[in-house]
Each structure stands twice: as C-alpha cells, then as structure tokens.
Design a protein that fits this description.
There is one protein chain. The chain has 115 residues and is of the alpha+beta class. The chain has a domain of 67 residues. The protein has 2 helices and 3 strands; from the N terminus they run βββαα. A 3-stranded antiparallel sheet has the order 1-2-3. A hairpin with a 6-residue loop joins strand 2 and strand 3. Helix 1 crosses helix 2. The protein is globular.
Length: 115
Amino acid sequence: MLVVPPNYTSSICIKCLTLMEHKGGKWNRLRCPKCGYNYNGDHVAVWNLAKSALVVLGFHYLDTYLGRDIKAYMEAIDELTPALIKALSQTSKSGPGVSEEGGKASSPRTPPEPP
C-alpha cells in the first residue's frame, strides 16, 4: 500500500497547475482563473492524487513525457504551497477535523496493538 499526502489535491488545476477557485459559491465545483478549466473538486483531487503517487514513487526523475509532467506538478506544488496555505487559512473553520468551538479536533485514537 502506498500512502500519498492529500494536501491541496483538489485545489490545483490539472491542465495548467494553477490554484483553482470555487465556482458559483459551490464548494465542490472548481474553476481555473487562468485557463478556464472547470470540474468537480473530487475528480480534480483523484487526478492530482495519482500524480502525487507518481511523485512518491520517483517518476519525476524519468526523462519521458510522463516524467516531465510529474516533475512540473511537483514543482507547482512547491511553488503554490504558500498561496494554498494562505487561501485555506481564510476559508470557513467548519468541517471535518474542526471542533464545534472552531479549534482543531483531537486526532483519532490509534487502536491498541494486539498482545
């Protein structure tokens, strides 16, 4: 099994690798301000999770079309990280992983190891 960090995967345009915006106030619909691409956030996330998995596996070192595409994705993530952190910190504080008081909820407990 491969563990892939899901950070920002639904926020990056799969066409031009820029930060996407929510379309029409709907959380799951995203639109790229640069190239105009718009799609469902879940589909964008799946596409970008696959790219992240290929980064973890080292495909960005290949001198092929796929390798160059994955390298460009990795470089876009590195470049966009400060902007993504800022954008995410300005969004609503409700949702998964956030307590009703607005602070971070405690992490799920790890199950005890079998004897």
